[in-house]
Amino acid sequence: MTDARVSRVLVVGGGITGSVLSLALARRGVDVVLVEIRREWTGIGHGITIQGNALKAFRSVGVLDELMAKGIPFDMLRVKNAADGSLIAELPTPRTGGDDLPPTLGALRSDLSGILARAVLAAGVDVRLGTTVTEIADRGESVTATLSDGTTETVDLLVGADGIRSQVRSMLGIESVPDPVGMGIWRVVAPRPAAMDCAEIYYNGPKFKAGYSPISRDLCYAYLLEGNLDQSYIGEHPYGKVLKERSAGYGGIWGEIRDGLADDAVVNYQWIESVLVDEPWYRGRSIVIGDAAHACPPLIAQGAAMCAEDAVVLAEMLAGGHPVESVLPAFMARRFPRVKMVLDNSLRLAGWEMHPDTPGADPGRIMSETLHALRAQA
């Protein structure tokens, strides 16, 4: 009988999904090659809100303690009025990772990326920067990938963890592409006001909404959501003055953050997009996971969690000794309902925030219901 165990895996993409998968596989004795198209393996500088179920995944691959030492845990989301910062509601955050983990952790994306990268290298993963896959050939009992440096790798499984604009997805013949949601998001890292002790969001203002989270003892991550602007704004630019102008009308702590920004502060602006592959995520011995298969708007702060969960669950299922041909459909069947629920609710929330007069619109309820549902096992 052919040995069904997976002993060698090629992971394409060194973001959260690919890094967590590489760690989870390496901890199970799998030989992992990780290719990352960037020559410098760093994360962009703005903040990230990490829910408890993501923390659970990070704990399972051994990076939680270092991440907790860098970030700031909190357990509350406050909803405020835009003009003066007056309180509308306080929403305790469900412990989606279990009662022994914080409900939420605010952190710098660059800190998370650095922690994961160091852990991957320490685990003995064969990391090749400035490299990606150019061709995939399924051989039945193996898959051979041609890399951009001209070499080839023959492995038991190829995993595309290369993000919302996944090239692996296209190479597998999956035609799903990202769709603009109709919202753009400004993000900036700024000094943390002394009064900030949890995440807060501001409604009833001139834009869709504004908000912030603490991400360290001294820093916070602030954002503003509005309609899609011209694509020339997309990326990181010294647009502090632009953000200050566009966020006029927001008071409270948000106004304090805005007024403290330098005119040339580096600000990131992106269109918010989503994608959901509803056909099989796999072809033969190749599969896409994470944002390559399902990317949701960041309105419920579950993007990183869904990616990290994918990675941990796939590694766990591959370690069961079952043939790859049965693991991949079983993996998708296990993950699809959960990620679709998050994506559908995130899109519903986006619609309500763009059109707040929609009958039945209740952003707080949909956020709370989604997070409570995620307490169930991934």
Topology at a glance:
Elements: E1 8-12, H1 16-26, E2 31-36, E3 47-51, H2 52-60, H3 64-70, E4 72-74, E5 76-81, E6 87-92, E7 104-108, H4 109-122, E8 126-129, E9 133-138, E10 143-147, E11 152-155, E12 157-160, H5 167-171, E13 179-191, E14 199-203, E15 209-214, E16 219-227, E17 235-237, H6 240-246, H7 252-259, E18 267-276, E19 282-283, E20 286-288, E21 294-295, H8 303-318, H9 324-354, H10 363-373
Parallel strand pairs: 1-2, 1-12, 2-8, 5-14, 12-20
Antiparallel strand pairs: 3-7, 4-7, 5-6, 9-10, 10-11, 13-16, 13-18, 14-15, 15-16, 17-18, 18-21, 19-20
Description:
By secondary structure, the chain is α+β, with helices and mostly antiparallel strands. The protein folds into 2 domains: 8-73 and 91-178 and 275-373, FAD/NAD(P)-binding domain, CATH 3.50.50.60; 183-272. It is 31% helix and 30% strand. The protein is built from 10 helices and 21 strands. It has helices at residues 16-26, 52-60, 64-70, 109-122, 167-171, 240-246, 252-259, 303-318, 324-354, 363-373; strands spanning 8-12, 31-36, 47-51, 72-74, 76-81, 87-92, 104-108, 126-129, 133-138, 143-147, 152-155, 157-160, 179-191, 199-203, 209-214, 219-227, 235-237, 267-276, 282-283, 286-288, 294-295. Strands 5, 6, 13, 14, 15, 16, 17, 18 and 21 form a 9-stranded mixed β-sheet that branches. The protein has a 6-stranded mixed β-sheet with strand order 8-2-1-12-20-19.
